[in-house]
Amino acid sequence: xxxxxxxxxxxxxxxxxxxxxxxxxxxxxxxxxxxxxxxxxxxxxxxxxxxxxxxxxxxxxxxxxxxxxxxxxxxxxxxxxxxxxxxxxxxxxxxxxxxxxxxxxxxxxxxxxxxxxxxxxxxxxxxxxxxxxxxxxxxxxxxxxxxxxxxxxxxxxxxxxxxxxx
Length: 166
Description:
The radius of gyration is 16 Å and the shape is globular. Strand 3 (91-95), helix 4 (99-116) and strand 4 (123-127) form a beta-alpha-beta unit. Helix 2 (38-49) packs across helix 5 (134-147) and helix 3 (69-86) packs across helix 4 (99-116). With 166 residues, the chain is of the alpha/beta class. The chain has 6 helices and 5 strands. The strands form 2 sheets. The protein has a 3-stranded mixed sheet with strand order 1-2-5, with helices on both faces. The protein has a two-stranded parallel ribbon with strand order 3-4. The protein has helices at 13-21, 38-49, 69-86, 99-116, 134-147, 149-154; strands at 2-8, 54-61, 91-95, 123-127, 159-164. It has one domain: 2-Layer Sandwich (Nucleotidyltransferase, domain 5).
């Protein structure tokens, strides 16, 4: 399982969103790497890598026998909360999920934040990826990490990969 946490200085959020929206083709509402051509994948990753204002931590967790998807997501979310705090983020947007998962996410994140007591309060929410272009960056960087090879190398200047142990 993979989860990407993308950080960007708040002063560059609007320009980063605009640059990512500029990658949309006619009729597209979002960029999703699994659906893009190799040429477009290169374009997206190269745009992210040269942005200069964006960094990402991709968390990888290999589920062991007996750990289901729900438990694996909990482990990744708890690690993501620590990452968000380490990045001194004040807001965090997650890709939208079905209502039952959204409720579990909110409980997991809320508990992890209350235990960690970050110096900077963190506001978080789920949004559809079509509404938040920075989620496309998280998708692209998670995809590149998962597929590896040259795809991952294209983003290595902005990417840190952390393996979460069982």
